[in-house]
Amino acid sequence: MNMSEVAARGLVLLGCGRMGSALLEGWLKQGLPPSSVHVIDPNPSARLRALAEEGLHLNADLPEDAAIALIAVKPQMMTDALPGLRRLADGRTLFVTVAAGISFAGYEAVLGENAPIVRAMPNTPAAVGRGITAIIGNGPSTPAQLDLADALLQAVGQTVLLDSESQMDAVVGLSGSGPAYVFNMIEALAAAGEAQGLTPEMSLHLAKATVAGAGALAEASPEGPGTLRENVTSPNGTTYEALKVLMDPQTGLGPLMRKAVAASADRSRELGRTDE
Length: 276
Ligand SMILES: NC(=O)C1=CN([C@@H]2O[C@H](COP(=O)(O)OP(=O)(O)OC[C@H]3O[C@@H](n4cnc5c(N)ncnc54)[C@H](OP(=O)(O)O)[C@@H]3O)[C@@H](O)[C@H]2O)C=CC1
Ligand SMILES: O=C(O)[C@@H]1CCC=N1
Fold this sequence. Notes:
Blueprint: H1 3-9, E1 11-14, H2 18-29, E2 37-40, H3 46-53, E3 57-58, E4 68-71, H4 78-81, E5 94-97, H5 104-111, E6 117-121, E7 131-137, H6 143-154, E8 157-161, H7 168-176, H8 178-195, H9 200-220, H10 225-232, H11 238-246, H12 253-273
Parallel strand pairs: 1-2, 1-4, 2-3, 4-5, 5-6, 7-8
Antiparallel strand pairs: 6-7
Helix pairs in contact: 7-12, 8-9
The chain binds NADPH dihydro-nicotinamide-adenine-dinucleotide phosphate (NDP) and (2S)-3,4-dihydro-2H-pyrrole-2-carboxylic acid (A1CAB).
């Protein structure tokens, strides 16, 4: 199955909020015609309504033989929303879900144990084509179906394949939730600049450009982040003093980040067990 088959047979998108719409824009940019897309969402955005004018099917009947059903509702909505896709669970439609926490067993309980399902964990830089998504398929999914899910997610950035489903909660904690940690770092950096006397506008400008520039350098450089950090740090200079605070083994960023990632991963595990 390839993208032209998806265009011919159709793609169902269940839930088109922040993540669903980022994915949809990526597929449209890659040439998927709006008329191949069937969106189910109770409160469609203005953008979706405009796409419906171009042929996108909005809250209409499901196609008979969709190639893909992509699930992008909140885990808490799954019990209500997922049974609506049961009619597609005849083994021919590949289900791809981006929901945090919910395990293959949870989907199989509704869709049947023979439904091919791929779990994917993207992140919001997908909205600018710079996401990273980890994916893994269940037993009934074929290598060709995993490749197709990979291609779908590559429309919005990079992908990595996981070895086991149990790695997914750690991925949620690291790259799924991770953009929020970085945005919080920008906020904290800007507030700290203000505390040193800069205007809010100047401080935010400097903080955003510093994080974006450091990210781009970390990605482009052959050096690891440790060397890049050392390259900023003159012996007994200014950065050295700041890093004594940030790299404190008890109170620094290391233990704090371990705690934050663990809290997200634990919540992902919890969402897999409950619908709260
Ligand atoms: N945001 C992120 O950073 C990431 C999110 N995810 C996962 O993506 C999924 C969606 O998250 P996100 O996009 O942030 O959430 P949003 O709330 O932005 O999107 C969910 C969408 O689903 C709609 N919806 C609610 N009930 C139903 C229903 N019964 N049938 C169809 N659609 C429905 C919502 O409508 P309404 O708003 O009107 O309720 C909303 O438009 C989650 O499972 C999350 O775990 C994964 C990786 C990263
Ligand atoms: O906060 C959440 O539950 C979702 C999953 C990963 C990022 N956002």
